[in-house]
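Contributing new records

If you add data, match the layout below exactly. Sequence lines come first and carry their own label; structure lines follow with theirs. Keep one chain per record. Anything else will be rejected by the validation script.
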Amino acid sequence: MSTETDILNLKKIRSDFPILNREINGKPLVYFDNGATAQKPQQVIDVITKYYQLENANIHRGIHTLSQEATDAYEKARVTVQHFINAGHEHEVIFTSGTTHSINLVANSFAKKHLKSGDEIIISTMEHHSNIVPWQMVCEEYGATLIVVPINDKGEFLFDEYEKLLSDKTKLVAVTHVSNTLGTINPVKAIIEKAKEFNAFTLIDGAQAVPHKKVDVQELDCDFYAFSAHKMFGPTGVGILYGKEAVLNNLPPYQGGGDMIKTVTFEKTTYNELPHKFEAGTPNIVGGIAIAAAIDYMNTVGIDNITAYEAELLNYATQQIKTIDGVRIIGEAENKASVLSFLVDGTHPTDIGMILDKLGIAIRTGHHCTEPLMNRFGIPGTARASFAFYNTKEEIDVFIEALKKAINMLV
């Protein structure tokens, strides 16, 4: 068995995640499906429970104590997010229901303001469906064209090809920071800088980046950055859209309703200031508060510590899985985050996943909402192990032995 690094206090960290004490089919749970959703520490669970037990009220405009307390907690959470991603202003932080909502918000508002027939939007081959379909929809509606940057066999963004695709027709470049299927970390700063040479706007899908590495939106200089709480140890149903103040102010609202207005008459509505212009209706209040608790937890562990330790996990898992005959890794970029996608000769990923589940190990199988990427590699899907900082090398050892058993049963 391997020895653990001293970067993190793993015993303490694992004790903070109650679900890690579960057994599945009589085996200790090994949770390697963090790319789909991460587990929640007790500190986040307690914040959610406390809110509903003692603080529940609707926010903004209420004069009673509970409403004021809830509003204060919600808006403090916005400031926590601002500092976490180093946004220039707290009103550049828009609460949404998740990355998908954030991207759809931009797609619809941006298209109304900036998109016309003949324009082009650039994405990459490795995008999640959430960063493909919204752009397809607006391109079809406005007569624009969707352009796709190819990748190489290692799963790396082909920057030279990207440069060739940029033109005066390019209105927006929307790419993932970290691929949910390949783990590839894209050179987003360089992508953004090159887009600016053509006066194109930029959106970065950061759902898989924020849980694993430090993100500084001012340093990146992107126009938009989107991510979800549930992949960074917070609750489902809440996410963030960062947008530059000037860019957001120039866009029309995405939805109409309460809180996004200043005044309403039957003749005319005057829209609210940022961030409220893009936050129609009662939000996921406790979700917003809890995302701040998740950020506080990550900051306590240390973002740089998380990045360094997860790199150890990925390197160790990659080395170990390569010792198994017949295993093919899908995605071997030089710069990767903690995702290990693979296939086993003579087997289907679903069969591998089902057997591993019987042995207490949770992985993901399928196309991972990246069907065009699977078509690029000529495969129906992969098995995917994705790691978080509460995982251990000992768990990887258990996973490797279980995978060998599964292969023996299937081949």
